[in-house]
Amino acid sequence: MPRFYNFSAGPATLPEAVLQQAKEELVDWQGAGMSIMEMSHRGKEFMSVAEQAEKDLRELLNIPDNYKVLFLQGGASSQFSMVPINLLRGKTKADYFNTGLWSKKAIAEAKRFGEVNLVTDSEPNKFTTVANESEWQLSSDAAYVHYTPNETINGLEMHTLPNVGDVPLVADMSSNILSRPIDVSKFGLIYAGAQKNIGPAGLTIVIVREDLIGNALPNMPVMADYQTHVKADSMYNTPPTYGWYLAGLVFKWLKDLGGLSAIATINQRKAEKLYAAIDGSNFYANPVDLQYRSWMNVPFTLANADLDKTFVAEAKEAGLVTLAGHRSVGGMRASIYNAMPEAGIDALIQFMQDFEQRKG
Ligand SMILES: *Cc1c(COP(=O)(O)O)cnc(C)c1O
After folding, report:
1. Residue 340's CATH number
2. Model confidence pLDDT, tens digit, residues 135-173
3. What is the pLDDT of residues 79-128, one digit of tens each?
4. From the CA of 28, how far away is ligand 1's center (Å)?
5. Among 159, 185, 208, 241, which is least packed, fewest CB within 10 Å?
6. Which ranges of 187-322 does DSSP label H, i.e. alpha helix?
């Protein structure tokens, strides 16, 4: 039985080669006589795995030396509060883009710690586009600017960096980190839950510029202070060791593939194919402004929503799973992260065309 093509938004499909290697090493990691999961995180075997993973991530993203890389837990959702706790640094206000449902959650959490100014609000257009830069309302006294470059639920991606001047730019890259090269030096902080483009759920990556660390709000939990994790090399408490190891395998897989420029070319081609199939039919539709269509998450609706359940069921028969859309958007959503092979996109398009012919 071959594996399904799994279009889940997260936890999402992983490269099969990575899973195979993990399987081979599961019971006895490289002659250590035990699995990675059973080792001390402070032993030399795991330390070497941890260090190599960070080194490979730094190489992939070309992370400058004045940035720390943290391997944490708590998901991107914990960063919704850790960002204001650490980055307000004596100020009282932060700027937020509201471009989708994940932005909204980050904003709601930030409001518990300070004032939030909306740079722009895409809610009135149902998160299908972003206003032009000329209409943005950046405040002069913001401690930082937060945005979500890829809105996983709405399929809305900002393909260019917002220009925010000298104010630290913070990005929730949970669903598009490692999908293309980025200039890390343009950011104050980047965070991402692992379960979309990095590895299994349970690991959260934070990349933070050194000068932003060490000014957390008073009386906060010690675990909420980036300084705690920086000082302890992400081992203040027991880190998610297996997730860290698996992320390391994914980083190696990406490097072997040719790094982020290579994967970007593939990702763009995969997305363009799928959007072309949607736009080329009168049966499928995607509501997102062409300029802001996500390379990673492609929501689409059927001309007749009564056919949604049949579509999902028949797709599953064809080996294409987890295509039902998010409840807030409806229809379908194909998440096509780095690990989704191009053959999976081809199979989906083939199925969509066949379904349309029979039912459209
Ligand atoms: C999935 C996701 C989150 C939530 O991540 P958790 O790790 O479950 O907290 C936040 N932001 C974005 C953009 C996401 O895609």
Report:
1. 3.90.1150.10
2. 999 999 999 999 999 999 999 999 999 999 999 999 999
3. 999 999 999 999 999 999 999 999 999 999 999 999 999 999 999 999 99
4. 32
5. 185
6. 226-231, 241-257, 259-279, 308-317
Residue 8 inside a domain? The answer is: no
Domain boundary among 231, 257, 283: 257
- Contacts with 219 (C-beta within 8 Å, 6 or more apart), sequence order: none
Residue of 174, 197, 294 with the most ligand 1 atoms within 8 Å of its CB, for mutation: 174
8-state DSSP, 232: T
Quick one: tokens of 153? 């639920």
202 lines ligand 1 (CB under 6 A): no
Looking at the fold, whether 227 and 269 belong to one and the same domain comes out as no
Q: Residue 360's pLDDT is what?
A: 84
Same domain, 171 and 246: yes
206: containing domain: 17-257
pTM value > 0.90: yes
- Report residue 180's pLDDT band, with 50, 70 and 90 as the boundaries: very high
The reply to whether 168 and 281 lie within a common domain is no
Scanning the structure block, which residue is given the tokens 């720390």? 68
Ligand 1 contact via 109 beta carbon (within 6 Å)? no
Q: CATH number of the domain at 90, please.
A: 3.40.640.10
**Inside any domain, residue 12:** no
Within a domain: 349: yes
Q: What is the pLDDT of residue 1?
A: 62
Residue 213 contacts residue 227 (beta carbons within 8 Å): yes
Q: Which of 102, 147, 150 most suits a substitution to test ligand 1, by most atoms within 8 Å of the C-beta? A: 102
Q: Give yes or no: residues 277 and 160 share one domain.
A: no
- Catalytic annotation present for 102: yes
Residue in 172, 225, 244, 295 annotated catalytic? 172
What token pair was written down for 162? Answer: 């917002």
DSSP string for 98-126: E-SHHHHHHHHHHTTTSEEEEEEE-GGGT
- The pLDDT-based confidence of 185 (bands split at 50, 70, 90) is very high
> How many whole angstroms from 176 Cα to the centroid of ligand 1?
11
What domain count does the chain have? 2
Q: Are 159 and 291 in contact (CB under 8 A)?
A: yes
Q: Does ligand 1 have an atom closer than 6 angstroms to the CB of 301?
A: no
User: In the listed set 238, 257, 276, which residue is the last one of a domain according to the structure?
Assistant: 257
Residue 192 Cα, ligand 1 centroid: separation in angstroms?
A: 7
Provide the pLDDT confidence category of residue 24 given band limits of 50, 70 and 90.
very high
